Amino acid sequence: MEADDFTIKGMYKKLIRDFIKLPWRRLTCNNQGNPKWIFILYLTIHRRLYTMDRLDKWGIHTDQWLCITRNTVGWTEEMDWAISHATGKTIQDEVHRMTLATAVYYVWQERNYRIFQKKERTTEVITKSIIQEIHCRISMQPKLAEFIRNFNYYP
Questions:
Q1: Secondary structure, 3-state, the chain
Q2: Which intervals hold domain Reverse transcriptase zinc-binding (predicted)?
């Protein structure tokens, strides 16, 4: 590239050529949720949370489990669903991203309570906390607050 051929656009294209756009990037980068929720979601996406197998490897043994009776799919399928339903630019997608980050954070927090403090909250208490956090966070964003006010909870 000669000096006469240099453009900022050309340089930018050369620089970004090697970067791969990750399908989950909008789940964390465009999330209006609390930063700590987004951080835990980021760690979960990268499978970096301290799970039972990691705790066992470190010599921290626990015989408690989360007592979750819901049939779930694997994390890959959960991420595929989130990528296909929550990475757009609509307000509904923003709410989905925030809800995902909040739910992952509260599940992680509950796991920590059960393992390290031997305390346990009911599903109803956790769900109520998630809903309250989301509504509080949404109320600080005018366009999200308007969306929730107009949202029909009972189709």
A1: CCHHHCCHHHHHHHHHCCCCCCCCHHHHHCCCCCHHHHHHHHHHHCCCCCCHHHHHHCCCCCCCCCCCCCCCCCHHHHHHHHHHHHCCCCHHHHHHHHHHHHHHHHHHHHHHHHHHHCCCCCHHHHHHHHHHHHHHHHHCCHHHHHHHHHCCCCC
A2: 6-67
**Residue 155 scores a pLDDT above 50:** no
| Residue ranges covered by each domain of the chain | 24-150
pTM of the model: 0.62
Predicted local distance difference test score (pLDDT) of residue 134: 84
